[in-house]
Amino acid sequence: MEYVGETLSNFIHQTAFLNITVGNVIMIFVAFIFLYLAIKKGYEPLLLVPIAFGMLLVNIYPDIMASPAETSNGVGGLLYYFFSLDEWSILPSLIFLGVGAMTDFGPLIANPICFLMGAAAQFGIFVAYLLAILLGFSDQAAAAVSIIGGADGPTSIFLAGKLGQSSLMGPIAVAAYSYMSLVPIIQPPVMKALTTKKERAIKMDNLRPVSKLEKILFPIVVTTVVCLVLPTTAPLVGMLMLGNLFKESGVVRQLTETASNAMMYIVVILLGTSVGASTSAEAFLNFSTLKIVLLGLFAFIFGTAGGVLLGKLLCHITHGKVNPLIGSAGVSAVPMAARVSQKVGAEEDPTNFLLMHAMGPNVAGVIGTAVAAGVFMAIFGV
């Protein structure tokens, strides 16, 4: 009987029940909410499911994120090694490779003015940067937080790692991916508040056809120009454009399929679970996290507003040929933000098709957010 009692006691002490905290319970509940939004509501399930599950795992079994120095056998937890790939900027760069292999830059090439709307949508990043400094963040922490306004999870993780803000990477990444998922909820009120019914109903002319040569030259030219000006953007912009060159060249179909399918989904699993696992109760439940979440929301709203307001200016300059709604797609949430532009425009006129026009600012925003990250790295000499 003594053996049985000792065995049962050892088993009970190995369960999570004796070590779980109130904070862990709160974070587990948050994980359940994320899983509900992903599975029931369909909010970016490819991102939210692995993030939420990583959050669930680490708050039940914290050692899954333990470093080798924290373990008795010198072997770290599984998700610790996944997270190291985030800190080393490997996974964000590979995500960009996959995104590039799936992206059609044709709408942007056909209407280069979309570059301006993609740039204007980065306005929220720099406003949030100044606010973050006022709220007590260091310069580099403020830069890492403010990039959430671009609604680009991989870039947020990349910049946080480069600026040495690994302790903030979890809250930053969760906020960035959450706002990407909530684009259909956050953006429409801002878009409607800044435009009139007449502007939202504007129909734009069909885009011109883009030649194969233009599509092949685009990633080569963009890489050369951007990386000469901001060499630190090479891991993101370079991988984005390499993936796109795979696609548009038409001579490496196997590489295109691998980058846009198998590799992309493997990287999403690794990145999502490791980001979620960085949100232990101890790391996440504090006042700094609340400030990060609010600053990210503020940046995202102002980024959306910046794109729409430039769209209104272009609408005036072109005498009504540009629908201002497509400016909201200048944030990097591809293709969700473009779909929202289409949806809001269709509410005024069901025959109005803005999706392809909105894809121009949308893909320009991906480049714009990477450039904004490069500007911060140049400023801080990283």
Write up this protein.
It is a single chain. The protein is mostly helical and 382 residues long. Helices cover 72% and strands 0% of the residues. It is built from 20 helices and no strands. The chain has helices at residues 2-14, 22-39, 45-60, 78-87, 90-102, 106-110, 114-120, 123-134, 139-146, 153-162, 166-181, 183-194, 197-200, 212-229, 234-249, 253-277, 281-284, 287-317, 336-348, 355-379. Helix 10 (153-162) packs parallel to helix 20 (355-379). It is globular and about 85 Å long. The termini are far apart. 52% of the residues are buried.
List the helices and strands and how they pair.
Blueprint: H1 2-14, H2 22-39, H3 45-60, H4 78-87, H5 90-102, H6 106-110, H7 114-120, H8 123-134, H9 139-146, H10 153-162, H11 166-181, H12 183-194, H13 197-200, H14 212-229, H15 234-249, H16 253-277, H17 281-284, H18 287-317, H19 336-348, H20 355-379
Summarize this structure as a short list of keywords or feature phrases.
382 residues; mainly alpha; 20 helices; 0% strand
